[in-house]
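hi got a favour to ask and not much time before my train. below you get a single protein, a line of residues and a line of whole numbers that encode the local backbone shape. could you go over both lines and see whether the tokens make sense for that sequence. a few lines back from you is plenty, here it is:
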Amino acid sequence: MLILFDTLNVYYLPQYVPIIEQLKLRHHQVKLVCYSNKNDQQAFSEVINDLDVECIWVNNTQQAKLAYLSLKADWIFFGNKFEFLDEVHQHSKTAQLGHGVGPKPSYYHKSKTPMTVRFIEGDLRLTKIKEYYPKDKFIQVGFSKLDPMFNHTQPEGDLAELGLDPNKPTILYAPTFNPSSLECFPDNWPEDFREYNILIKPHSLTQVREKYKKQRQKLAKWSIFDNVYVAKEQDISLLPFMKNADILLSEASSTLFEFAALNKPVIVCNFFKLKWSYRGIFKYRFYNRFGKDNVLYSEIGLHVNNYTALIKAIPQQLAHPEQYAANREIYTNEHVGPTDGKASERIVQYLENAPSS
């Protein structure tokens, strides 16, 4: 079979890679379709070359459509909606795969235009999306991105190579781009955690979009501390950071679900900066987009309302990782799904056994 992966954003790759590896093991042909209007082709050339698959670069979705009509693949994976499905479905079957398991309503509404199948992670997500789209095809498989963590094929990262001390406990801070707690952290906060390594993995959009330059200014200030490593734009995958970290800090990122699935403590930062269109009289927009579903992670771990509270919360949670363990297990079953490391195998088996029409 020929299987294509629509890579609208390069940060979809960690979700795709375990599936790609399974397909290669079974001798299927794999190609990426990447978008130069969304991603820096030169910056990510090494990352893509390491996958050892052909990458076709297009400028926009119109060019992507033409590529799909020409290639006539057996299957095309999408990490988001795609506006030309009627034409694509004349030649190919399509599979939708979310690149995160966060609480945003967009997770569900990407399925408004149905693909041949959508692969779903946890029990609660499957139930909810079936309520939205009762006539569509959904298959629960788990969360392919985490397969290397669960099947123990993810290599140990070398903290010393990052300039950090392997003997120190390690904090992973993974803020999203909006709403983000990043700008609410002090310029010198690594000084308050001198006894810890700090791995900082910002969202990929923080790294590249002009409107997030103030976030990048914060990252530059933190990067000078000798107990800090700030991920580069090319550090696409969060997995190496998760492997080494003992605790996670975030505010509204699906990383909270992913890290909790490893049965490690998470701290939810309830303090963040809203863009102007979510503030004041427009705050209802924020609650309409995030508020209703943010309750999904209300009990996933300890919540802190300001940076000062975080100073005491981190050592407390590290000393008592069992405090939210039962909650983490529930969240994992509901949102991440099976943790046997075989989500990618289930996906490939479905592709191989699906009816031809």
Q: What stands out?
A: The two ends are 14 Å apart (CA to CA). The longest strand covers residues 29-35. Residues 122 and 337 are 4 Å apart (CA to CA).
